[in-house]
């Protein structure tokens, strides 16, 4: 293409509902959802590892279901409800059950993979509130962690289920 | 890495989608779940100038079970089909195989039709489409056509869909009464692409074998079907030694070696898995008949 106008990239105004709030920014069509969240909306909790769907660090909830934000364009995510790790805690004072379980069980070391684990596990426990240890392993099998050897993450999944039940009983 | 620039099109109907595809020609690509396409774009292995994002096209997200088929629209995600009880009852092989397709986060987004259009010989669902003698439904500005699985896959990552054509859905066939099915694969981690995988269907009539068929994942260039009927038909199922089928499977497959496994190892796996799935499919068929 020699025409100079065609070298100027198409820019789109993209509005996303993230953690319950409508947010708008201008970005090119090729902006990945992960980069839109991090760079355009400054929600840097979502991490980016591999950018081809393997590591799971970028996992966010789309309409409550875990998906890879590096394998989705921000423009396609419009009209959907996005939940990032920043949106998991019920309020500023309290961590979510999965977050609390990770702190209690030392489910993280460097924390790079953690946002993807937290979103994945949060969605999983809604479907299966009482996982066995084998199910807890299966639930995290699509996420990679370079630090923990996974033992404490598996414990965190089981503890998060307990905390959820404790909070329900206490409420 | 990041994708190179493209123009994003968001058609609302199939007619609109195929009109854009006709206009942009070879510079256009259909974007469905993006679980195979976006990695390719991120790594700049492809740089189409136009993406026709079909995610907003109405009416493509339905599953219909008919007497002879399970028909799914092009936006049915793997996860939806996997959980669909009607589809499972009509053809249990769908759920048996879908459990092995990637991880849940990827199944939540990736479409079953997209994985067939992608024509990856390491995909589970192309092998299932072949084994069920299913069809791909395609639309272009010139009209619609349906393509039998046997004609659809031309080679690794190559289907007979032409420029300007999109798949609007696929139809998986159903097996005759008395059929048991099974799926098994070996992967380094559950959810990863299989080193080798086998789908099988065994049909019995009054405890006697009448049909035995298998198709393969990751060990053949296209998902062609190995028909073992001649070798086993007419025998009482209780007397069949399925270990014999392993040799036929090993002769049939044509695996490549890579960093994960040698060709010989994959060939061996294909044999072992064939024995396993045929044993399981035959047991299921027998159980179904005694009910
Ligand atoms: C980490 C990871 C692991 C995976 N593991 C597996 C696995 O074990 N087994 C497996 O089978 N798959 C696996 N996948 C791929 C996944 O199943 C994809 O969902 C699938 O291959 C493609 O479907 P899609 O809807 O995402 O298609 P897209 O990525 O959107 O498209 C893929 C290709 O098909 C074309 N296409 C898509 N839909 C249509 C249509 N309706 N008409 C015409 N062309 C179309 C596109 O143009 C593109 O060329 C994996 C993916 C990832 C990221
Ligand atoms: S960054 Fe998205 S899966 Fe690795
Ligand atoms: S805690 Fe470091 S990568 Fe998981």
UniProtKB/TrEMBL annotation, chain A:
<dbReference type="InterPro" id="IPR006058">
    <property type="entry name" value="2Fe2S_fd_BS"/>
</dbReference>
<dbReference type="GO" id="GO:0016491">
    <property type="term" value="F:oxidoreductase activity"/>
</dbReference>
<keyword id="KW-0411">Iron-sulfur</keyword>
<keyword id="KW-0408">Iron</keyword>
<dbReference type="Pfam" id="PF01799">
    <property type="entry name" value="Fer2_2"/>
</dbReference>
<dbReference type="GO" id="GO:0046872">
    <property type="term" value="F:metal ion binding"/>
</dbReference>
<dbReference type="InterPro" id="IPR036884">
    <property type="entry name" value="2Fe-2S-bd_dom_sf"/>
</dbReference>
<dbReference type="GO" id="GO:0051537">
    <property type="term" value="F:2 iron, 2 sulfur cluster binding"/>
</dbReference>
<protein>
    <submittedName>
        <fullName>Carbon-monoxide dehydrogenase small subunit</fullName>
    </submittedName>
</protein>
<keyword id="KW-0001">2Fe-2S</keyword>
<dbReference type="InterPro" id="IPR036010">
    <property type="entry name" value="2Fe-2S_ferredoxin-like_sf"/>
</dbReference>
<keyword id="KW-0560">Oxidoreductase</keyword>
<feature type="domain" description="2Fe-2S ferredoxin-type">
    <location>
        <begin position="12"/>
        <end position="88"/>
    </location>
</feature>
<dbReference type="InterPro" id="IPR012675">
    <property type="entry name" value="Beta-grasp_dom_sf"/>
</dbReference>
<comment type="pathway">
    <text>Alkaloid degradation; nicotine degradation.</text>
</comment>
<dbReference type="Pfam" id="PF00111">
    <property type="entry name" value="Fer2"/>
</dbReference>
<keyword id="KW-0479">Metal-binding</keyword>
<dbReference type="InterPro" id="IPR002888">
    <property type="entry name" value="2Fe-2S-bd"/>
</dbReference>
<dbReference type="InterPro" id="IPR051452">
    <property type="entry name" value="Diverse_Oxidoreductases"/>
</dbReference>
<dbReference type="InterPro" id="IPR001041">
    <property type="entry name" value="2Fe-2S_ferredoxin-type"/>
</dbReference>
UniProtKB/TrEMBL annotation, chain B:
<dbReference type="InterPro" id="IPR002346">
    <property type="entry name" value="Mopterin_DH_FAD-bd"/>
</dbReference>
<keyword id="KW-0285">Flavoprotein</keyword>
<dbReference type="Pfam" id="PF03450">
    <property type="entry name" value="CO_deh_flav_C"/>
</dbReference>
<dbReference type="InterPro" id="IPR036318">
    <property type="entry name" value="FAD-bd_PCMH-like_sf"/>
</dbReference>
<dbReference type="InterPro" id="IPR016166">
    <property type="entry name" value="FAD-bd_PCMH"/>
</dbReference>
<protein>
    <submittedName>
        <fullName>Carbon-monoxide dehydrogenase medium subunit</fullName>
    </submittedName>
</protein>
<dbReference type="GO" id="GO:0016491">
    <property type="term" value="F:oxidoreductase activity"/>
</dbReference>
<dbReference type="InterPro" id="IPR051312">
    <property type="entry name" value="Diverse_Substr_Oxidored"/>
</dbReference>
<keyword id="KW-0560">Oxidoreductase</keyword>
<dbReference type="InterPro" id="IPR036683">
    <property type="entry name" value="CO_DH_flav_C_dom_sf"/>
</dbReference>
<keyword id="KW-0274">FAD</keyword>
<dbReference type="InterPro" id="IPR005107">
    <property type="entry name" value="CO_DH_flav_C"/>
</dbReference>
<dbReference type="GO" id="GO:0071949">
    <property type="term" value="F:FAD binding"/>
</dbReference>
<dbReference type="InterPro" id="IPR016167">
    <property type="entry name" value="FAD-bd_PCMH_sub1"/>
</dbReference>
<dbReference type="Pfam" id="PF00941">
    <property type="entry name" value="FAD_binding_5"/>
</dbReference>
<dbReference type="InterPro" id="IPR016169">
    <property type="entry name" value="FAD-bd_PCMH_sub2"/>
</dbReference>
<feature type="domain" description="FAD-binding PCMH-type">
    <location>
        <begin position="1"/>
        <end position="177"/>
    </location>
</feature>
């Amino acid at each position: 293409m020699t025409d100079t106008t065609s070298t100027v990239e198409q820019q789109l105004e993209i509005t996303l509902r993230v953690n319950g709030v409508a947010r708008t920014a201008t970005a090119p069509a090729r902006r990945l959802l992960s980069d839109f969240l991090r760079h355009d909306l400054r929600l840097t909790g979502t991490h980016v590892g591999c950018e081809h769907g393997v590591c799971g660090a970028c996992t966010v909830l789309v309409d409550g279901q875990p998906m890879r934000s590096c394998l989705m364009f921000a423009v396609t995510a419009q009209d959907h409800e996005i939940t990032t790790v920043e949106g998991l805690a019920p309020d500023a004072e309290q961590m979510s059950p999965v977050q609390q379980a990770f702190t209690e069980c030392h489910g993280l070391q460097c924390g790079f993979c953690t946002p993807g684990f937290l979103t994945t596990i949060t969605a999983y426990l809604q479907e299966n509130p009482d996982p066995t240890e084998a199910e807890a392993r299966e639930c995290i099998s699509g996420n990679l962690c370079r630090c923990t050897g996974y033992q404490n993450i598996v414990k965190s999944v089981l503890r998060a289920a307990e905390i959820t039940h404790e909070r329900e009983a206490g409420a | 890495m990041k994708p190179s620039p493209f123009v994003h099109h968001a058609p609302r109907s199939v007619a609109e989608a195929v009109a854009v595809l006709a206009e942009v020609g070879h510079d256009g690509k259909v974007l469905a779940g993006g679980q195979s396409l976006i990695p390719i774009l991120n790594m700049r292995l492809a740089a189409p100038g136009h993406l026709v994002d079909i995610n907003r096209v109405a009416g493509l997200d339905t599953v219909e079970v008919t007497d002879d088929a399970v028909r799914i629209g092009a936006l049915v995600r793997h996860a939806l089909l996997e959980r669909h009880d009607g589809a499972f009852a009509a053809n249990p092989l769908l759920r048996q195989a879908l459990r092995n397709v990637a991880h849940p986060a990827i199944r939540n987004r990736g479409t079953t039709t997209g994985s067939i259009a992608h024509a990856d010989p390491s995909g589970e669902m192309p092998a299932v489409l072949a084994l069920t003698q299913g069809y791909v439904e395609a639309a272009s500005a010139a009209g619609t056509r349906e393509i039998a699985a046997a004609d659809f896959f031309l080679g690794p990552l190559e289907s007979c869909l032409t420029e300007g054509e999109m798949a609007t859905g696929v139809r998986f066939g159903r097996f005759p009464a008395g059929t048991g099915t099974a799926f098994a694969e070996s992967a380094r981690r559950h959810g990863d692409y299989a080193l080798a995988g086998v789908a099988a269907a065994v049909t019995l009539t009054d405890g006697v074998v009448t049909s035995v068929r298998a198709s393969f994942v990751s060990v053949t260039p296209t998902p062609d079907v190995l028909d073992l009927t001649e070798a086993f038909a007419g025998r009482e199922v209780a007397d069949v030694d399925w270990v014999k089928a392993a040799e036929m499977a090993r002769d049939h497959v044509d695996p490549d070696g890579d960093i994960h496994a040698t060709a010989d190892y994959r060939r061996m796996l294909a044999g072992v898995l064939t024995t396993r799935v045929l044993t399981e499919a035959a047991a299921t068929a027998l159980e179904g008949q005694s009910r």
